[in-house]
Amino acid sequence: MEVSNLFDDVKRMNKRQFIFQVLSFGMIVSSALMIWKGLMVVTGSESPIVVVLSGSMEPAFHRGDLLFLTNYPEEPVRVGEIVVFKVEGRDIPIVHRVLKLHEKKNGTVKFLTKGDNNSVDDRGLYAPGQLWLTKDDVVGRARGFLPYVGMVTILMNEYPKFKYAVLACLGIYVLVHRE
Amino acid sequence: MHSILQRGNSILAYALSVLACLTFICFASTVLLNYVTDAKMNTVKVVVKNVPDYSASRERNDLGFLTFDLTTNLTGLFNWNVKQLFLYLTAEYKTENNELNQVVLWDKIILRGENAVLDFKNMNTKYYFWDDGNGLIANKNITLTLSYNIIPNAGLLPNIFAKGRHSFKFPMEYTTTRM
User: Which NCBIfam families does this UniProt record tie to the protein (chain A) (predicted)?
Assistant: First the structure.
């Protein structure tokens, strides 16, 4: 479709049609938000889908792979599981495997993690003075894996102009396009 | 006539939906498989020391040393949706301090196509066997288990215990000589 045609479409719309387009655009945005929030409720995790950003779990996970997380409080953390955790002072959550775990009688648990591709455990990555992770640090446990799909978000984050261009194109297309 | 843009768009959309469909079939064809297998393990030499743990609290903690035998054949676990196995040997035990302790002593990554018939004799552990206190000396029931985390091309990430375990006890006295 050529640009002049696009705007012809807009010109031919009357007020009602224009409002309808804006509303359907709003529907798309709000249903995306609902799906995300719904996933948060179902999985119990504050971030049910994460993109792997580093190579510390290679060759299992590469940069740009997608992980599906759950975080049910009744499921205990165990050694060998892949957890996604947040460390104070770091914005980006880390995806690593549990190496050691100690659980007290009252249920409090502390554990140490390590990346498969790293030669040492994660004590150097934790906040200064922090020796163990607890359940509060955990964002989720990895349950499902999908390769490559996250590459799109990595591209968008690394080239913000590309992100805004894509968003603008999509927005204009939805507003202008008539079915 | 269709423009180049329209043709490109429909080729891309079709290719993506075929890929998504194939990925789903790959996942669905293996989701119900049973991945349990047998493993035989044994400890050879077991000693315990009481030394300061400079990597953590700097207090004197129990540090176990052991060598182990391991025989297993994991060839049958591999199929078209198994990219990698992450094997790990866990020591599980109970102490006065903690109701449950799990320490990974050794791990190994096996990619598809690599040798999956393992027969190790008198292997050293890969990680230190630090206890969270002084619970190893004279501990009568330490259980060794072999588990594996299956990394698929796309799909679930199960952690599975191999059948077969080995229990051993630590000596009543600390070893003070260098080994």
Answer: sigpep_I_arch (TIGR02228)
